[in-house]
Amino acid sequence: MNTESSPLFLHVENLQKSFGGVQALKGLSFKVSPGIIKAIIGPNGAGKTTLFNVITGVFPPNGGAIALNGMSIEGCKAREIARLGVSRTFQNVEVFGRMTVLENVMVGRHIQSRAGIISTGLRLVGMRREERQIRESAMQHLAFVGLENRATELAANLPLGEQKLLEVARALATDPKILLLDEPAGGLNTRETEGLAALIHRILEQGITVVLVEHDMNLVMDISDEIMVMNFGEKIAEGKPKQIKNDPLVIEAYLGEEVDYSDL
Amino acid sequence: MQSSNRKALLGLTLFLILFPVVAMNVSAIGHYLDIMIFVGIYCLINMGLSLLMGYAGQISLGHAAFFGLGAYTSGILCTKFSMSPWLAMVAGVGITALVAYIVGVPSLKLKGHYLAMATLGFGVIVHIFFNEEVSLTGGPSGFSDIPGLSILGFSLNSDLSYYILVWFLVLLTLIFSLNVIHSRIGRALRSLHDSELAADAMGVETSRYKVMIFVLSAVYASVAGSLYTHYVGFLSPSSFDFFLSIKLVMMVVVGGMHNIWGALLGTWLLTFLGNEWLHVFHDFDILVYGAILLAVVMFLPDGLVHLVPRMSRVWKRG
Ligand SMILES: Nc1ncnc2c1ncn2[C@@H]1O[C@H](COP(=O)(O)OP(=O)(O)OP(=O)(O)O)[C@@H](O)[C@H]1O
Ligand SMILES: [Mg+2]
Q1: Contact A204/A35 with Cβ under 8 angstroms?
Q2: Cβ contact (<8 Å) for B187 and A99?
Q3: Which of A4, A177, B9, B20 has the least CB density, counted as fewest CB within 10 Å?
Q4: Which candidate, A177, A249, A165, places its Cα nearest to that of A32?
Q5: CA-CA distance, B67 to B78, in Å (whole number)?
Q6: Which residues of A lie inside 8 Å of B (Cβ-Cβ)?
Q7: How far apart are CA A204 and CA A38, in angstroms?
Q8: What is the CATH number of domain A10-93+176-192+209-263?
Q9: Separation of alpha carbons A184 and B176, rounded Å
Q10: Cβ-Cβ contacts under 8 Å for A40 (sequence gap 6 or more)
Q11: Residue B185 is nearest to which of A77, A96, A117, comparing CB atoms?
Q12: Contact A66, A11 (CB under 8 A)
């Protein structure tokens, strides 16, 4: 699937984002090295989704820098970021509801294909070949997440868990080097969450770096190489799972919340 | 092409071949051939509107203007400058595409009601232009003596010849549009309709595709306008007013806008209703249209075309 992937480093420096009076990101700095699973955790409203949105160009930051292999990308359009090899899923699922499951993933192949309006309208030979490749590749990505037998169903008719998997397949279809997952385990049962952990490992084996925002602490502690903890738009801790578990600041940040600390 | 589409195309083609044979031999419906030419002309416009509204999810309340731009460009170039009609048609497409691009780039940044208002305003401005630019357009009374079309030296001087030309172009445009729908471009349009956020994240150039399909739909309307001009032989602004824009949208919605076949069905039904079956209502026909629209939106939100698979299921069950 992702054969010629050269490593991609993500650097974030002093990133700021505010919505009116709310400062969602207050000068956040961190980096993501290639080939790891990096988790970002923090209480509700910490700014995790905002961070993903700014990185992927949903809206520009108010200050700071984001760089991929040293090239600054802050303020780039979402479609440009996708072409640079960063793809994502959404916390509140954003599948294309009135399209089939397979068609959803085929949209993921958009940036890997080029037929224009004339060659599609006339179904020229090159376009037909490309269309076949899009379909085959999309089918492979569906099989990769285990949704191949749902291919012809409307995406809106899938249960939430499968919609989340569909978003993963769609994001993978763009051939990303970095994959941002926003709460992929939200709404999944224990068995599904175990399947998700295995899936994330297989994604890593494809040479894709995974950045994971997640509230499920068992999952995070299990699979992450590094964890960054955010609170009120700031980084309050960063390190290996073991270090994070014993960090007093982290424990304090979570004290306001009803989380099961026996796991931490 | 999907097999269901191939079957429908075959069915439509058969119908189109048989229709004039029947119409020309049954005097009561002899003039239906003339109405079918208008159905074909409006079908051209509405296939574009279906792509724009049903697939890409962008509304236009100004498509009568593109229809009019094609019509007036052809009419003016052929009468005042003695240009060849086919060349004039191409010029009309060029001018209309350019105008659609200039209007589309800023307006398609708007959403929903704002886009509706912007396109509506554009339609009104173009209509005023047709009315006021008297030296060019002949003003409110328009102008006549527009020459007919000819192909390879044969002039099209019968209803049948226009019927064949118009519906031949409709079929070509339909096949082109179906091909676009079942491609990465069609999927890009539908994806931005369902979630612009996700489409952007997948790298789809959403604003570019919106403008592209807006321009394409304007081009369809422009060709329809040129055909109209040469068939009717005279032009006046009242054929391209705001009410036409509304009627076009109604046809697409009544037929079913999420399916290009729905646009054809709605156009056929409402054109026949308007020209033939609703004469008793005189100027109140717009009210009848409104009632039909209301009924469809309330009880059949996916349009009349949605009944077809249901009916064929009932048929198969026997
Ligand atoms: N588009 C927006 N407009 C206005 N305010 C926003 C927007 N997005 C986020 N915020 C605000 O920014 C802050 C951070 O929100 P964000 O969604 O990034 O948190 P989060 O860490 O993802 O939380 P959760 O764990 O609940 O998903 C919150 O106060 C939120 O209300
Ligand atoms: Mg969030």
Answers
A1: yes
A2: yes
A3: A4
A4: A177
A5: 17
A6: 56-58, 77-79, 82-83, 87-88, 90, 94-99, 103-104, 106-111, 113, 115-117, 120-123, 127, 130-131, 134, 167, 170-171, 174
A7: 11
A8: 3.40.50.300
A9: 40
A10: A48, A51, A211, A212, A213, A227, A228, A229, A230
A11: A117
A12: yes
Structure-token pair, residue B204:
């789809």
Q: Which residues contact B260 (CB under 8 A, 6 or more apart)?
A: B47, B50, B51, B54, B174, B177, B178, B181
Give the single-character DSSP code of A92. S
Tell me how far apart the alpha carbons of residues A57 and A51 are, in angstroms, rounded to a whole number: 10
CA angle B172, B176, B179 (to 5 degrees): 140
**B48 neighbors B221 (Cβ within 8 angstroms):** yes
> Residue A173 corresponds to which tokens in the numbers above?
């279809």
Distance CA A97, CA A107 (A): 13
- Tokens 């399209």, located at residue: A99
Q: Tens-digit pLDDT profile for chain A (264 aa)? A: 444 557 889 999 999 999 998 999 999 999 999 999 999 999 999 999 999 999 999 999 999 999 999 999 998 999 999 999 999 999 999 999 999 999 999 999 999 999 999 999 999 999 999 999 999 999 999 999 999 999 999 999 999 999 999 999 999 999 999 999 999 998 888 999 999 999 999 999 999 999 999 999 999 999 999 999 999 999 999 999 999 988 888 877 776 554 554 544
